[in-house]
Design brief:
The protein contains 21 helices and no strands. By secondary structure, it is mainly alpha-helical. The two termini are 22 Å apart.
Length: 462
């Protein structure tokens, strides 16, 4: 758009007119998500993570504490940290105000997804230097099935996308005006992210470090620049670390008490992931690169046990708690990986391929139904992601060569961290959640840059 004032450095909130137009796109995104929930989303499966989140929230709202959800249906109150607590806490809050059913809670997460639309617009506005870039990115985020098809599931992905986008936006604000409070806020948001999905903690920590280093290299003539770069970098990284600890320490202390002194900083999910992702069935054959349990093998739990994959915690009547079982699973999984190092490069490639749609796309999309997502739209969302990623990569290279802000490189942080975690765990399209907003912004900036160049040529005097 011509005649636009570029966003003021350090300001997150846009002018009223810009905010109103972005708000309309947020509303469009919400309507699209509600329509998908009503007309294309499958029901929440009776077993699986989505149902577990719902039951965890109900138990919290009922004052029973954070206990294993399916065992609680049979009257067993077993302390748990299998799932990070952020989503159950959000859903429990909804339960307390009357949103008790799965459909109402999914609608709430559609609202979270709509907020992501607005955050994407703000990021693109900041990096593209115009309101038009923000409108374009928000519009793409509103209609991109890779986002909205995940937002209708009762899973952690809507929160992951929202927090992932918020991390980038706060990092940009800290880069523009490196105040101590902004680094502390970025660290605290990273801690919150870690209580949603583990890769968000990695993303947040990486952004704190990247922004602190970039600020230290800033010329003294620029805002925030000056001498003492090394000490300043350490102080700002320390502020970010303090923010992380303020959020994570209470949860870690709760787990120390719940599991008799055993350290569980985030969740016991690391044990089940390590066991299910490192076994014969997950290293070769049709399930290579997956997390394998008895459901994936299509048999009984004994089938999974014979394959050495995940076959459940089986805590009822056991003298071990969840943390002990998870620790054993983690040791077994890592031992298997250590014994099969020669196969790891192929397995890691399969994990990444499953996540970005370059390996077993049809099989992976068919699994989406079990997680509360429409399989057809899951496939289309992956194709849309591939197109956006291709446009975004080309646009980033050309943009940097053409003098665009180097702050755009920060968008690579959530993408790289998400893929790194996938490589060392297992593949699933929903693990793109924290990276999807960055990919949308990169692609939108590429189109916005191209449009600006075309306008400049048209407007140039002949």
């Amino acid at each position: 758009m011509t005649g636009e004032a570029p966003p003021a450095p350090g300001r997150i909130c846009p002018p009223a007119r810009t905010a109103a137009l972005l708000g309309l796109l947020v509303l469009v995104g919400f309507v699209i998500r509600i329509d998908a929930l009503r007309n294309s989303a499958p029901e929440v499966p009776a077993l699986g993570d989505a149902k577990a989140y719902h039951l965890l929230a109900a138990n919290l709202a009922d004052g029973k504490g954070y206990i294993r959800p399916f065992e609680a249906l049979d009257g067993y109150e077993l302390k748990t940290a299998e799932y990070p607590p952020a989503l159950p806490v959000v859903l429990a809050a909804a339960d307390l105000v009357g949103v008790e059913g799965t459909e109402g809670q999914r609608a709430l997460l559609c609202g979270v997804g709509a907020i992501t639309v607005g955050l994407v617009g703000l990021i693109a506005r900041r990096l593209g230097g115009s309101d038009g870039a923000g409108y374009l990115a928000a519009g793409v985020a509103a209609v991109h099935p890779g986002l909205w098809n995940a937002d209708v599931s009762l899973m952690a992905e809507p929160l992951a996308s929202c927090v992932g986008a918020a991390l980038v936006l706060v990092a940009l604000a800290a880069l523009d005006r490196p105040a101590a409070g902004r680094f502390a806020a970025l660290g605290a948001l990273a801690g919150i992210g870690g209580l949603v999905r583990s890769e968000l903690l990695l993303i947040g920590v990486a952004l704190v470090a990247a922004v602190a280093v970039a600020d230290a290299r800033r010329p003294s003539s620029e805002a925030g620049g000056g001498a003492g770069g090394g000490a300043r970098t350490l102080r700002r990284v320390g502020l970010g670390a303090a923010g992380v600890l303020v959020v994570l320490v209470p949860w870690t202390v709760r787990n120390l008490v719940a599991f008799d002194g055993q350290l569980v900083p985030l969740s016991n999910n690391s044990g089940s992931v390590a066991r299910g992702a490192n076994c014969d069935a997950a290293y070769r054959g049709q399930y290579r690169g997956l997390w394998v349990t008895d459901v994936a093998l299509g048999g009984t739990s004994s089938d999974a046990a014979r394959a050495g994959c995940f076959s459940g915690f089986d805590l009822v009547g056991s003298d071990r708690d969840e943390a002990e079982v998870a620790a054993q699973m983690r040791r077994d999984g890592l031992a298997y990986a250590g014994d099969h190092l020669g196969e790891l490069p192929t397995v890691m490639a399969a994990r990444l391929g499953r996540t970005v749609g370059l390996y077993q796309l049809d099989q992976q999309s068919n699994f989406a139904f079990a997680e509360g997502r429409n399989a057809t739209w899951d496939r289309r969302g992956t194709r849309s992601f591939q197109l956006l990623a291709a446009i975004g990569v080309v646009g980033l290279v050309l943009g940097l060569r053409g003098g665009a802000s180097r702050a755009r490189v920060l968008l690579l942080v959530p993408i790289a961290c998400s893929m790194l975690v996938v490589a060392f765990t297992y593949g699933n399209p929903r693990f793109r959640a924290a990276a999807e907003p960055a990919v949308v912004v990169l692609a939108s900036l590429a189109v916005s840059d191209l449009a600006a160049r075309v306008r400049a040529r048209v407007d140039a005097p002949t």
